Fold these 2 entries.
Entry 1:
Amino acid sequence: MGGAPGRVWVTRKIGEEFDESCLLPKFKKQEAIIVWACFVGRRKGPLIIWDKPAWGKTITAKGYQTHILPHLEQIWHSESARTHDYVYIQHDNASPHRARTTVADLQDRGLYNYLLPWPATSPDLNLIEPVWRLMKSRISKLHPRPQNNKDMVAAIQNEWNAITDYELGQILDTMIDRVDAVLTTNGGHTKY
């Protein structure tokens, strides 16, 4: 292999130019799929696939309040009741999370006081990130690989469903080490 970036050279015999072992599949670029999910301890919450035609191309504050906050509120109430304690919420500080209208909505729903103060752009501390990495890794190993957005949405849903309570527990158990690593690097890069 060599040559220009993105170019692959294959050594083959005469007559093998269309042999499957000598070809790389080419796919047209798929439109990005936006997903939201949460977990509480070792329990998964809902996985929401953003409906771009109906809800818009991106998650706005209004879209977040309309299509995601009701699910967050429901899981917050059910988990708070189940544990007989309050559940705290970690947002990643994306702009729809910080918008004044979202803050007001969270206050109206009685959830605002249960938001953890969280530094912006802190993926090292955001425990949903390793869940996304695990799902992406599993999806990349599927055979056949998803060929279009419909297949990819199905794969995302299947892999979310396949995440076990044990796996969530393993991820959750890294939190103390994650905080220590971020403190050690004074907020710099960590292995997480």
Note: The longest strand covers residues 43-49.
Entry 2:
Amino acid sequence: MAESVGFAIFFCRVVESIKAVSVFYNRSTKWKGQLMTEANTNPVYRITDLHESDRPRERLAALGPQALSNAELLAILLRVGVQGENAVQVGQRLLNKFGGLAGIHRAPFDELLNEHGLGEAKAAQIKAAIELGRRLTLESPEARPIINSPADAAVLVQYEMSALEQEHLRGLLLDTRNHVMDIVEVYQGSVNSSQVRVGEVFKAAVRRGSTAVIVVHNHPSGDPTPSPDDVAVTRAIVQAGKLLDVEVLDHLVIGQGRWISLKERGLGFS
């Protein structure tokens, strides 16, 4: 599901809509103004060590989740920090390490577990919160992203797909108003006309009643320049869409930090 289009908003909506952090709203603990210590006397930096006006959960309650940074939202889920870092600092470290919320979303679970300060419970909470946010945008029509241009489609998938080590072909299913109904995995492997079954591109679209699709695949090399096979596959998909009365609006190739619209280049679209 790009931060600029949705991941930060997704995350905020999760915190606000499902009240996943309400368990952390106990206001009875007074600010101690000093480092908390565990039984072994090693300092553990907690959110309650921050001044009350700087505590993420208090700021969320007073100002709403939209006012919080991604690091602060993560801190609410983390609850406590580690030796030398409070929860907000741990959250910022995770964002820096993985390249933002999108990077955390696509990082393998085991890789998160390797981060200092994360156990299975915290890693699972973070993964679940981001995934719930992604699903929330696809659950209600008014919250679904609207595609008005190739850039709108690219920004939804670019961060995740640019980091994939294999080629993946996906379809963005759209309704009559160009709201994104779903993003479905169609194929994994080399995208060429001899291996891609064109019918698979439309299976989910027909089942869901989608009237239009945007096809997206990535180039693990990082270079989004379309290959002859990309053009051939595009041409076959467009023709099949006409027979099924499902419009193929575009085929995007995602590279590292760049993407290309085959329709804008007139490749595979007559």
Note: The longest strand covers residues 180-188.
